[in-house]
Write the structure tokens for this entry.
Amino acid sequence: MSTAPISSPSILTAPRLVFLDALRVLAILLVIILHAMAPVLVDTKHLGHPGWYLCLLQNPFNRAGVPLFFMISGFLLLQDPAIHTPLSFYRRRLPRLLLPLAVWNGIYLLLRTHPDSFRFGLADYFRTLLTTGSCYHMWFLYTILGIYLVAPVLGFLAQHGGRSYLMILLAVAVFPTSILPLINCILPFQAVVYTPMAEGLLGYFILGFLLGTTEVPRPARMAVYLAGGAGYFMDLVTDLATSTAQSIPLPSQSGYRLSHYFVAAALFLWVRTFLQTHPRTEQAVARPLAHLSRRCPSASFGSTSYCWSSPTGCWAQAGPPFPISALKSL
């Protein structure tokens, strides 16, 4: 596989990359649809109904939404010149992450406190702040924090150490979270391996940079697409096989499944290749995609929508954009 790193001095000053806008819009839609369909998909009352099957068929694709955000961020951040001066990088990035985290951790803690037994102490505040946050969906902020801390090291390796080092780190991130669980299904005992910081999500961050800056030949692309198709059917079959009238466990909801890597990689590579090899289509969709991409909502953790915004990308997650009853009625 030949490599073709971005040759511009700064990815931040280069013209907008249409395929990134397309991927960002796609990722936003996938996350929105994922959360909109979840109430139907996990409700045993709808098992076997046409609306439930519709949700099931889309679920493997929807699960690629969050991985795509990490891949976009890895592609952009690892080419940001500021990443080569770690102190400057931390001063610019960390306050924009830590301040909202500290403020909204307190707000959610207050909202979760019952009025009849109101009690808010600094011990509760710091206990939640230094663990997993006062609300579940704050997990992604802690993941971003871990990735920010190691990003300068990854950026140095990307520019000076050669891609083989990044491939090693990708394997280190993916093995304990995505491959080892498959091995443990075969072994008569449970093997345990140390899980790196940011766990398997760090793998998406590295994978986005590698796929975005590598000229992938057609045979390799076909292999990635086939792996994506295999990953889709793997999740579809396991979700369907484990769904019963008593429970719908959805094994595919684990964000570290190897199948998610296959689907996300296939979508990322296909969108990039299609737009870059069809210049007329790329030119036609450039403006509307850029417009939609910029409409990603600003950072808000107090509503059903929240977005991680930066000069180079965003991470959006939103509540249902259409009535759930529309699916329930199918």
User: Anything to note?
Assistant: The beta strands are 306-310, 313-317. Confidence is low (pLDDT under 50) at residues 297-329.
